[in-house]
Amino acid sequence: MNCEKIKQKVGIRTVLESFNLFPVKENGKTAFYFALDRDEKIPSLSVDFIKNVAFDFGTGMSYDIISIVQQLNKCSVSEALKYLEKFDFSVQYQKEEIRTQAEYRIIEIKKIQNPTLIQYLKIRKVYEQRYLVKELHYQLNGRNYFGIGFENNSGGFEIRNPYSKICLGKKDVTLIQGEEDNKEITLFEGFLDYLTFRNLEKTKNSDYLILNSTIMLFKVVEKLNEYDKIYLFLDNDENGRLTTAKIQSGYKDVEDCSLIYHNYKDLNEWFCQGYIE
After folding, report:
1. What 8-state DSSP symbol labels residue 133?
2. Residue 254 pairs with which residues in a beta bridge?
3. At residue 119, does pLDDT exceed 90?
4. How many whole angstroms separate alpha carbon 6 and alpha carbon 83?
5. b or e along 177-210 (b: 16 or more beta carbons within 10 Å of the residue's beta carbon)?
6. Which residues contact 102 (CB under 8 A, 6 or more apart)?
7. Which residues 6+ apart lie within 8 Å of 90 measured at CB?
8. CB 52 within 8 A of CB 67
9. In sequence order, what E strands does 94-142 have?
């Protein structure tokens, strides 16, 4: 696949997530990330999700998805294209692990107690589901942080707080299976949407799958064959729509539930801003 085609097919957010890089500030169409090549306290990398490019205000460097991979993997253009192929939804998913670059140490795991995290859960209207997440205190690249932790199937943690969105440890999906032999599965992109759903549907007889990133779909392509019905609550963005189309084309009975919140980015945003009980 040539450079121009891969730039059209693969989103810059997906590429950054594959390196465990997430927005510090975001407004939907654009976002600020920390720089690719240095440590900093104030994010300087401006990412345009519509144009699929990034600009580093600290160095004046412009990036597309290929040069991002080159910068982070220290590789050639051809090697970057090979890396990007696994994110092209028209290419067969490859069973490759998403590596974590940052050095971290988990200091403490406990029930949600920190006032900042309590307030964050209340703002996201999922405080009732606090028993499904943990408060994590951790050290990342020598600095101490804390956040809301949601464990994945490999023992890694998706971490959220009002200021950041990262993964500690191995990136993976989170599969939550009920006691019964469920024939239905409900699929989410992130755990805040899963918590939101549990507010709305407390008694649904279903297993739950949280991808923790659309790039992790390749891990569950076989698992989804075990279910007769698949409900999708994915984001209303390019990655969400591509993932929805991929699942709809590969499985028999798939219901796209994003129509419920079609004017919003995701289920949680709809619940916080548009849902009326």
Report:
1. S
2. 230
3. yes
4. 11
5. eeeeebebbbbbbbbbbbbbbbbeeeeeebbbbb
6. 20, 140, 141, 166
7. 9
8. no
9. 104-110, 134-140
What span, in angstroms and rounded, lies between the C-alpha atoms of 29 and 152?
28
Asked whether 170 and 158 are in contact (CB, 8 A), the reply is no
Measure the CA–CA gap between 95 and 212, rounded to whole angstroms: 16
How far is C-alpha 221 from the chain's CA centre? Answer: 17
Q: Which of 21-35, 182-196, 230-244 has the lowest mean pLDDT?
A: 21-35
The mean pLDDT of 166-195, rounded to a whole number, is 89
Question: What distance in Å separates the CA atoms of residue 260 and residue 109, rounded to the nearest whole number?
Answer: 35
Across the beta sheet with 164-168, the strand order is 104-110, 134-140, 143-151, 157-161, 164-168
Integer-rounded Cα radius of gyration of the chain: 19
Phi, psi of 140 (to 5 degrees): -125, 120
What are the pLDDT digits (tens) for 2-37?
Answer: 788 788 778 888 888 888 788 887 776 888 998 998
Residue 202 is predicted with a pLDDT of 64
- Output the pTM of the full model: 0.68
What the chain holds in terms of domains, given with CATH numbers, is 3-87 (3.90.580.10), 104-168 (no CATH), 174-273 (3.40.1360.10)
What is each CA distance from 85 to 63, 212, 238, in whole angstroms? 18, 20, 17
> Percentage of residues in the chain with pLDDT exceeding 90?
46
* Torsion sign (Cα): 97, 130, 106, 101: positive
